[in-house]
Amino acid sequence: MEIPVASDTTNQTADSHGFVQRCMDYFLHPTFYGDPDALRRARILVATIGVTIVLFASSLFFLTFAPVSAISRTMGIPTAIISMAILILLLFKLKRDASYTLCSQVTVAIMSVILVFATLITGGISASPIAQLLVTLPMMAFFFGGVRDGNSCALIVGLLIAIALLLERNGVNFPQTIEPNDAGMMKSLMLLDGFCAVSALAFVYEYASRALRSERDEEHQKVMQLAQTDPLTGLANRRMFDDMLIARIAQQKATPQAPSFALCYLDLDGFKPINDHHGHDVGDQVLRAISIRLRSSLRGADRVGRHGGDEFMMLLDQLAPGPALEATAQRFLKIIAAPIETSAGLLSVEGSLGFAFFGQHGTDIETLKKSADAAMYDAKHSRVGWRAFGSPTPSANT
Amino acid sequence: MSMNATADTRNVTAAADYFINSGMHDNPDQLYRARILVLTLFVQIGLNVLMMVGTLLSPLLSESRYFSVPIYLASITAIVWSLYLLKVNGNYTICCLLAIAQGFIAIVGSFAITGGPNESAVAQLLGVSCLMSYFFGGLRWGVICTGVTIAILLTMMLMQTAGFVFPQMTAEGFKPIAPAFMLIINFFLVTAFSLIYELTHFSIKKERDRQHEKFVQLAKIDPLTGLANRRIFDEMLAARIALHSKLTPVRSFALCYLDLDKFKPINDQFGHDIGDEVLNAVSTRLRSALRGADFIGRHGGDEFMMLLDTVHNAGTAAALSQRFLQLVREPIETRAGTMQVDGSFGFALFPLHGADAATLQKAADSAMYEAKRARSGFVVHSPQSAPAQSTQPAADADSK
Fold first, then answer.
1. What ipTM was assigned to the predicted interfaces of this complex?
2. Residue-wise pLDDT tens digits, B344-378
3. Residue A389 to residue A391: CA distance in whole angstroms
4. Chain A residue closest to B154 (CA)?
5. A146 to chain B: closest CA residue
6. Which of A128, A193, B9, B288 would disulfide-bridge A119, Cβ 3.0–4.6 Å?
């Protein structure tokens, strides 16, 4: 059953309980696979029905072979057989019609009828050991049917308990089919039973909640990713880059002695003709190639972002004016100018770089960006490849 | 009813928040659980106080008050202490562990002295501490609590089978009603927890769907202008072409490309923020000028594209582009003063200039460049080159 929707939400279960999963999935109508939440609940419903059938089968065995009173035998065996038959029919109904609501409600109803009835023939609310299982009914109803079904079930079962208690108070004696000798043991067993049922439902609830939470976090992650990156190149978008720049400036202001950084603006030359001549698809290929090259040439704390169009910006850590700047600029110009393989053949663009140094050319984001921008235009107009802000003469690289 | 419920919830939340350390407000999941923990502890304190008062006042319970009142007092102390820890240290784990352990010890202790698993009415409350540990501590704690409880239960059952008699200290008068009393409390607590679980579930699911919706939206639109992005526009265009191709006779429409002129200088001179304001203003105007089945997208940069359902020939294209040009040229108020841009429109007609999306887009693109080069405002594509179009642009130039 390789259905993609199912695999991401329940892959843990799929890995560890492949066989159980396949057995459960056998009874699921294909429409359940469209909605992971419905699928999850439907699987748990199938599992619950399965466990209940097994419980009925074992109690059938117990009633047939263990020394129990004749009355429990004559009442218990038909009840168990009928309930099992209905539950098995429900499973096939779920498979054929995908009628989840009906199946879940009938399951809870069957259990309610049996538990209430069993309570009443074992001494009523006060004396019956089975009464303590009644609490599992609203829990199941909440889980399978949501708030409304849960509330209705809690109300109905609560009313039944109240009526039974009132009857007891007014002297009605409920029949007691449990032998006095077995009463203590029965009470302990039912205690264990009830506890296991509550614990299992709580486990299922917590498990489903955890799955939902991780799905929610995944979606949130995807939103953040989309909001922060440029979809074409996968680089940080302008907003994200600004955030990084602001954070870096704050860090620099906190530790003024640490090596400073430079902001670099890059504008591609010769890109617009490619876009116009070969179409946007080829232009996109060029932009992607340039982004990959820029990204791979960054060092540790360097950052690169795309401004939109053919403009990029880089935050270059620990860069200072001088020979290092010259080398860095030349390196970038070289990797930008290298020919690019596209679907329209080999193309090449050139870049104009403008550098601005934190501290020297601005201590706030606005000034720094303006300086880098101005340096970049300077480089573009004088066709010198790169300029640092305010450098009086064209650099030696011309 | 739900409205009242939300108002009530808000008041209750405010009361709970008093006990929650401000450091915990960063993690919404933990904050949510901490709030419910505080409320649960309130309920626990209330229950303990009620039981204590009941024990002290009721003649039915007079025999058991010497051991039950200290248990209630110890429980209340432990709960108040854990609330204090939550407020001062913001230590959710310890607070929650303490609360669960307190409940667990109180239940196990009192059920060991009320006749053990075979007789005690208190025993059924064990499910509640298990539910609490799942809810507040997560899967691991829940499983641990379940394991410990089952181990204790089995040990006690074995002890009973071996002949050990647990003390039965339930007051004689209370004995007959004890099972029903505990059943009701248990029923109430388990139902309340199931309701909380279901509501939690629902709210996480809603939040997940909201995030998903946001993701889908973000993937479709250009974040700056809110228009369809290029990918979605292309999809919509392809869908429209498929739809119209099926009709007989094929229904025509126009694809229009717009490139802003004089936009780049604004961006360069006043910065990208002002440029963004201009783009936003232009896209709002264009959007308001569209009719029913038209749609508009942004190509990135200063390029837009529109699908115009009512344009079937060069004549209507000419008339409409006059209106568009007027809208684009109208002065734009920005923070840096009044700006003005101009536009070049290129039209291509479906199916005349292209029966598939790629051809149609190329045609609109080349018409747009033609308009830009000729500074004519707009050009309708023609298979021949520029001269064939000179009549309309000339008319446009005259009208200026």
1. 0.71
2. 999 999 888 888 888 898 889 889 888 888 888 88
3. 6
4. A192
5. B198
6. A128
